Amino acid sequence: MHQHTPSHFSVLLVEDDERTSAFLADNLAADGFSVAVATAAGEAVRQTEVRKPDLILLDLSLEQSSGLDVLDTIRCADGLASRIDPATPVIVLSGRVGEADRVRGFDRGVDDYVTKPFSYNELLGRMRAVLRRCSVRSERGVVRVGELTLDPMTRQVRLAGKPLHLSVKEFALLHHLSGDPTRVYPKADLLREVWGYLALGSTRTVDAHACRLRKKLSGTGRPFVLNVRGVGYRLTEGL
Question: Looking at 139, 174, 199, which one is the last position of a domain?
């Protein structure tokens, strides 16, 4: 007997075995999930961009590539140009039962690891547990730092309720800094992680964007982006 899921969660099932895919898609739909199916890595990435699923069930043994390639694409996304939320929860489905395989999966960022063959009811329970832990995604990853709010899916920024217009890189820099407002991010790390440059390059690019960002965030008369001399930048709550 199916237990109807009270929420309208969407699931992307990445599975190239037709029988497994049909079995899961039918049962998940009967349990109240909105289900989309992808059979290859490229299709999985495209559907993640378009559908923005609440949860991904990912088979590691795809015909033309490893499911880990899909996982890496998701976890390395900036949430901006790619339109993929890097925090999208992922449950791996795999016939690899070794401890080393499971540890490798968790190290790459999976939220749970289910080995084949599996019990559907156990999988359903694990899915619900992951969705509960990731319930913060009901706001699609909106970040709040004091009076500042950022929505990585729509690229909207508001300061004290008023919209701000930022360039793509200004938003990417602000979003990266907001990941841990208490942390000082070295300039070389920002250059590499936001711009994709090796740390050998000049950090003047970071300084220029941070300066413009500070000016745009100065509407309340209080600083949000602090320059820690000789180190890098961090966010404050504008206090």
Answer: 139
